[in-house]
Amino acid sequence: MSTVRLISEQEATGAVKAYFEAVKKRYGMDWVPNLSRAIAYRMDCNAPRSRAYARIIAPGALSRALKEMIAVAVSAVNACDY
Q1: Contact 12, 20 (CB under 8 A)
Q2: What is the DSSP letter of 41?
Q3: What are the pLDDT digits (tens) for 9-49?
Q4: Cα(40)–Cα(22) distance, rounded to whole angstroms?
Q5: Residues 69, 82, 34, 4: is their CA dihedral positive or negative?
Q6: Model confidence, pTM
């Protein structure tokens, strides 16, 4: 399985550094999650991904908890360790 070297907070500059700071602020963390560090390689894909996630997780017929359980089940079916 291929791996991607994640961008560290120390080496982040410009738009990536701003993105990392926004992620930490949004989630109230003092560190950047690995998914965000991986996405930083393609900042041009980040806005569409964020909009898609917001639409998926937005209030609707299914509760947020059920949507998250579905995501976990799909990850398990796909043998995703993350």
Answers
A1: yes
A2: G
A3: 999 999 999 999 999 998 899 999 998 999 899 888 888 88
A4: 12
A5: negative
A6: 0.68
Determine the Cα–Cα distance for residues 48 and 54; give it in Å rounded to an integer. Answer: 10
Q: Please say whether the beta carbons of 7 and 16 come within 8 A.
A: yes
Q: How many residues does the chain have?
A: 82
Contact criterion met (CB below 8 Å) for 12 and 39 = no
Do residues 16 and 40 make contact, with C-beta atoms less than 8 angstroms apart?
A: yes
CA distance 43 to 36: 10
Q: Could you report how far apart the first and last alpha carbons of the chain are, in Å?
A: 14
**Contact call for residues 41 and 11 (beta carbons, < 8 A):** no
| Start-end of H helices in the chain | 14-27, 34-39, 43-57, 64-77
